[in-house]
Amino acid sequence: MKKEKGFTLIELLVVVAIIGILAAIAIPQFAEYKTKAFNGRAQSDLRNGITGQEAYYVDSEQYATCSADCAGSLPGFVLSQGVSVDFAAASVSGTNDEFSGAACHTQGDRDYEWASSGAAGNVMSNASNSGTCAPEAPGNS
User: Fold this and answer.
1) Residue 4, in any domain of the structure
2) 2 within a domain of the structure (yes/no)
3) 47 located within any domain
4) Are 80 and 102 in contact (CB under 8 A)?
5) Where are the alpha helices (H) located in the chain, listed in sequence order?
6) pLDDT for 21-71, tens place per residue?
7) Does residue 3 belong to any structural domain of this protein?
């Protein structure tokens, strides 16, 4: 009599159970990683917008105020899909010589803000947006 080769039903059920447990652990982690990536995209766009503001200042000797049209206003600035930004210029000495900016992603959970002066000058801050992406530059409040 030949010995048959193969897997028993119990062995197959154990493998399926292990795969199910691993999937139950991995799927929530994957969702968290996606949210962090969307937040990183918003933060990166804000930093790129800050660089664009400085390039605009070199050409115009003032900062720009823009939100949805920043890609057309700021040199070299490309807005990522799903990211909203808002930049506000402020006049201290009669020209727009200061600015602030804010950004968030529609699928992220953080708002990012930056100001060129004041108590939080040149420091990027972030806060929970409670699921609502509506960036408002600190100078616009």
Assistant:
1) no
2) no
3) yes
4) no
5) 9-60, 70-73
6) 999 998 888 988 999 999 999 999 999 999 999 999 999 888 888 887 888
7) no
Tokens of residue 122, six digits: 């040149």
pLDDT at 31: 87
d(CA 72, CA 108): 24
**Residue 119 belongs to domain spanning:** 9-140
pLDDT at 102 over 90: yes
The reported pLDDT for the residue numbered 141 is: 46
Please give the pLDDT value at position 45.
Answer: 95
Angle in degrees, CA 115, 87, 47, rounded to 5: 65
CA distance 12 to 60: 70
Handedness of CA 94, 95, 98, 101 (dihedral sign): positive
Contact present, 125 and 76 (Cβ < 8 Å): no
Torsion of CA 42, 78, 53, 36, to 10 degrees: 10
Which residue carries 């050409």 as its tokens? 59
